[in-house]
Amino acid sequence: MKLQHLIFISFIFLVISFWNRNELPETGDIHPDLAIEPIQQPIQSSEFSVNVDGNDYFIQPLYDYEIYGLVVSYRLHNGDTGAHLRWGDYLNVADYCVVWSKSAFSKKLSEFNFRNQEWTCYWQTSSSKALSSFDPAKLSNNHLITADSRIRDSIKKINIGDQIKIKGWLSSYRSTDRHIRGTSINRIDTGNGACETIYVNEIEIIRKHTSKWRILMYLSLAIFLASLLRYFYSPFKVND
Fold this sequence. Notes:
Layout: H1 3-19, E1 39-42, E2 48-52, E3 55-76, H2 82-86, E4 92-99, H3 101-104, E5 113-116, E6 121-124, H4 128-132, E7 139-145, H5 149-156, E8 163-175, E9 179-181, E10 196-207, H6 212-233
Parallel strand pairs: 7-10
Antiparallel strand pairs: 1-3, 2-3, 3-4, 3-8, 4-7, 5-6, 8-9, 8-10
């Protein structure tokens, strides 16, 4: 195979695999714990303070909370840009949108499109059959907050398709000079304020998703770059 052909073919595979890299796991690969409904218990706890990047925040725990979910979309936050910069919010590590129960085990889940903006998870499908197999009350967008550097690093390693367990407190939090964020306390509300704000005490990937498309993407990228380098650094042949 000529080098130019290898470059072209690997590039095509790279584009296709990149487009499909976030394909969700098959129903048979869903961990049985994802059938468990979120566990929520009211608590009496005093407000406490934490410091992140030189900024003080005050956390008011409201409920003990535990949730199992399949990650369908997420957004890592950077306190140096966007609304997080304007609000001085360096505590919110990321938003993770997850599904569980009927929604996680739906055979039509792959027919949905999920995406996260800075504060919100959106979903849509053009399939009426997919819609009938999906329960919006089995989806939540979670603002994950913590001052623990180890947990913050663990959160950032979670990817689409991973199945996770989160334990912590549904909480409101504020900075020294303003109220920043409250929390939803049920899974049936919608619109502004419908997201769960969780002060994370424990987070675990209970089943890591190894997407075949993601593997193909990295493999085709490696072949594409290696072929490209060889093409440009190979000596040119001059025909007599």
